[in-house]
Design brief:
8-stranded mixed β-sheet, 201 residues, alpha/beta, 7 helices, Spore Coat Polysaccharide Biosynthesis Protein SpsA, Chain A
């Protein structure tokens, strides 16, 4: 069986309104949030792309050698689906591993575990459910769903749940994963940021 091609997608296109500044450039222990996602992905994928908010693109290009792209013009600002579809259009692959830029405790080990479920050719997506909450932005998606994403974008049905409703999803829970405990902690506001800043990485 041929090795599957896997591309990593780091989503850094959000407005970060609740946080007050762009979360990608928040720091934890002298390292930017987005760098933790790169470290989790880079050894596990054949290629990696950062989907950037326009205001971040120049700074990201200065600070990293990872290719930085913006949403395709016609779908700019349409949330995670736009970012995922943009990379699918740019580079064909078998699978895409998606991570957000605001989960600094995400690990290489978690990404490896997501990939371990992609050998099942009957599934379109691998999505964790952690503490009864779906985590569609720390997940794996097959290339075959690109057309479905395109149709949802055209209809302005932009929620990730709309996509999952069209897919054969392999849901995995805390019990299926070996976790260190905080991999799915995302940082939405300054209070949460202050709290996690006290924790060891």
């Amino acid at each position: 069986m041929n090795k599957q091609k896997i591309i990593g997608i780091l989503l850094a296109g959000g407005e970060s309104r609740r946080f007050g500044s762009h979360k990608a450039f928040a720091k934890l222990h002298h390292k930017y949030f987005y760098e933790y996602a790169i470290d989790a992905l880079k050894e596990n994928v054949d290629q990696l792309f950062i989907v950037s908010h326009p205001a971040l693109e120049a700074q990201l290009r200065k600070q990293t050698s990872v290719p930085v792209v913006q949403d395709l013009a016609e779908i700019q600002g349409n949330g995670p689906l736009a970012g995922i579809f943009t990379v699918m259009e740019k580079k064909a692959s078998d699978w895409y591993i998606v991570l957000p830029c605001d989960t600094p405790f995400v690990t290489d080990g978690l990404v490896k575990q997501l990939i371990s479920y992609t050998n099942d050719q009957s599934i379109d997506a691998v999505v964790p459910i952690i503490n009864d909450r779906q985590q569609p932005l720390i997940a794996a998606y097959h290339y075959r769903i690109a057309n479905r994403i395109e149709q949802l974008l055209k209809k302005k049905k932009l929620k990730m749940s709309h996509l999952l409703d069209t897919c054969n999803v392999k849901f995995i829970t805390n019990h299926d994963l070996q976790l260190q405990g905080m991999e799915f902690e995302n940082i939405n506001n300054q209070t949460e940021y202050e709290k996690i800043s006290q924790k060891p990485i």
